[in-house]
Amino acid sequence: MDRKAPIGVFDSGVGGLTVAREIMRQIPNERIVYFGDTARVPYGSKSKDTVTMYSRQIIRFLKTEGVKAIVIACNTASAYALDTMVKEFDIPIIGVVKPGAKVAVDTTKNGRVGLIGTDATIQSGVYDKYIKELNSDIEVIGKACPLFCPLVEEGMLNDTITNQVAERYLSYLKDKDIDTLIMGCTHYPLISSTIGEIMGDKVNLVNPAFETAIELRKLLFRENLYNQSDVDSPSLMYRFYVSDAAEKFRRFADSILPVDISVTKQINIEQY
Amino acid sequence: MDRKAPIGVFDSGVGGLTVAREIMRQIPNERIVYFGDTARVPYGSKSKDTVTMYSRQIIRFLKTEGVKAIVIACNTASAYALDTMVKEFDIPIIGVVKPGAKVAVDTTKNGRVGLIGTDATIQSGVYDKYIKELNSDIEVIGKACPLFCPLVEEGMLNDTITNQVAERYLSYLKDKDIDTLIMGCTHYPLISSTIGEIMGDKVNLVNPAFETAIELRKLLFRENLYNQSDVDSPSLMYRFYVSDAAEKFRRFADSILPVDISVTKQINIEQY
Fold first, then answer.
1. pLDDT digits (tens, 9 = 90+) for A178-210
2. Which segments in chain B show pLDDT lower than 50?
3. Residue B185 catalytic?
4. Where do the structural domains in chain A lie, given as residue ranges?
5. Is A179 on the interface with B (CB under 8 A)?
6. Residues of B (33-92) whose Cβ lies below 8 Å from A
7. Interval B212-263: pLDDT, tens
8. How far is A257 from chain B (nearest CA, A)?
9. What is the distance in angstroms between the Cα of B57 and the nearest Cα belonging to chain A?
10. Optimal mutation site among A242, A270, A272, interface B, most CBs of chain B within 10 A
């Protein structure tokens, strides 16, 4: 496998850009091919079978782009599809859930960890499973926050309505004596200041994207896949694909990423 | 064509059930095959090409069910795909936009009509086009309300947060001197009391679903497709299909429809 080959990163839409951002920051030598499934977003209210089928199509597409490893930059797809995808494909694949679980275990002092995410991520119980594997004494208290994604997608990042929705969702967690809260959806770091203010100073917020980039770097070293070449310009390093019209995606990406997105290309993902 | 054949009705998800409900009330003799594209909901933030492709797949599927006519019970799909679908298929197809435009024209006295809908429906300008064809003096003032769909899908029908979101969206329309407001998304009739309270008594709310059922009845008579047989039990009259897990859909349908939904079947819509 070519060390200069890109990393494939995918998400249901724009949320996974927070993961791509961490990879750009922490492993600036690596090329990235990002796919956002904007034609079928959101995943969080859909079933395991559907999300697994979507993930399979996307990985097939990313393989046509010659990627050397894949990051499932979506908590729902990581929760539902990672194990199946690892079995089906002969390429290293990591998700965001296991790294997120690890950092939560390292962070908590009192053994009480909160988790917010989509309906699918919470129902899957997968964070709980990974955390218990690392430390069976830790208790995980989950709360689905289905409206956070549409609010973030609408760009309502500092907004009284988002505050009230957050107040309502998080009130469930406030009297549970947690000292750590996993932001178990890649959209949520974009409203972390709102979440942090409501939860207070004593609760540490965990962003799985950060740890995922570290895990990816370790994986690339371990598998001798780390790119040692010089860094090119962003337009050569990063390619972006979407399954639906690119304009909204590009606006959002421009507001999140440290680099300009020059070209975003639309593909028909159902063909893969 | 068999007069006893069912009517095909489709929507991106549950919203179109408000149209199915009107058909059940107004034309109780007709069988219905309903398809909700719950794997790819929502349509309102997606492009014309994508929504057209989805509509084409769904109509191909509905034809395999032997339908005699099709109702596009989704404003976004009606706005983007109706004209193309009418050209492509040899079966009567109607949407919800033209009937909604007609009743708005009949309703307004001062010639100032408000329109709320998804981003896609508002941007398409299709309500404006149909209304101007009927009466070029009428002015249409549109406002996209993208959060209404997720709020309705979350079941937050009588909720202070939904009220505030509605207050914010509708404040744009309150000083525009409209006397008629088209609920240009099939989800919105489910929060019509909230919308009505904010807009006040002087604004008439138009629900295109009602007029669509009337249009359908006229069409069936005109084409000699009206079913004159006796009514069977609901389980024989109505079939429901979805593209993603049926449980949530069934719960929602049970709360909207006047009949029990006994069986909801999941199909792989991408194969059509």
1. 999 999 999 999 999 999 999 999 999 999 999
2. none
3. yes
4. 7-95+210-271, 98-208
5. no
6. 38-40, 45-47, 49-50
7. 999 999 999 999 999 988 888 888 899 999 999 877 788 888 888 988 776 7
8. 22
9. 12
10. A270
Closest to A270 (Cβ–Cβ): which among B147, B161, B270?
A: B270
B145 in catalytic set: no
List the 184-243 stretch of A: residues with Cβ below 8 A of B: 243
| Candidates 3.40.50.300, 3.30.750.24, 3.40.50.1860, 3.30.1490.20; CATH matching A98-208 | 3.40.50.1860
Residue B11's nearest CA partner among B30, B39, B45, B34 is B34
* Closest CB to B46 among A39, A46, A47: A39
Annotated active-site residue in B7, B51, B67, B74: B74
Q: Is A161 touching B (CB cutoff 8 A)?
A: yes
Between CA B241 and CA A28 the distance in angstroms is: 47
Same topology, domains B7-95+210-271 and B98-207? Answer is yes
| ipTM over cut 0.90 | no
Distance of CA A128 to the CA centre of its chain: 17
Q: How many CA atoms lie within 13 A of B226 on its CB side?
A: 15
The residue type of A22 is E
Cβ neighbours around A262 below 10 Å, total: 12
Pick among B58, B161, B249 to test the A interface (most A CBs inside 10 A): B161
> Which residues are within 8 A (CB) of B51 and not within 5 positions of it... i.e. 6 or more apart?
B43, B76, B77, B80, B81, B120
Give per-residue pLDDT as tens, A77-107.
999 999 999 999 999 999 999 999 999 999 9
Active-site position among A178, A185, A206, A246 = A185
Which of A50, A146, A243 lies closest to B244 in CB terms? A50
CA distance A107 to A123: 23
How far, in Å, are A120, A260, A261 from residue A252 at the CA level? 24, 11, 10
- What pTM was computed for the model? 0.91
CATH 3.40.50.1860 fits B7-95+210-271, yes or no: yes
Tokens 């006994």 sit at which residue?
B262
CATH topology of domain B98-207: Rossmann fold (3.40.50)
Model confidence pLDDT, tens digit, residues A105-148 = 999 999 999 999 999 999 999 999 999 999 999 999 999 999 99
Q: Which of B147, B150, B245 sits opposite A47 (nearest CB)?
A: B245
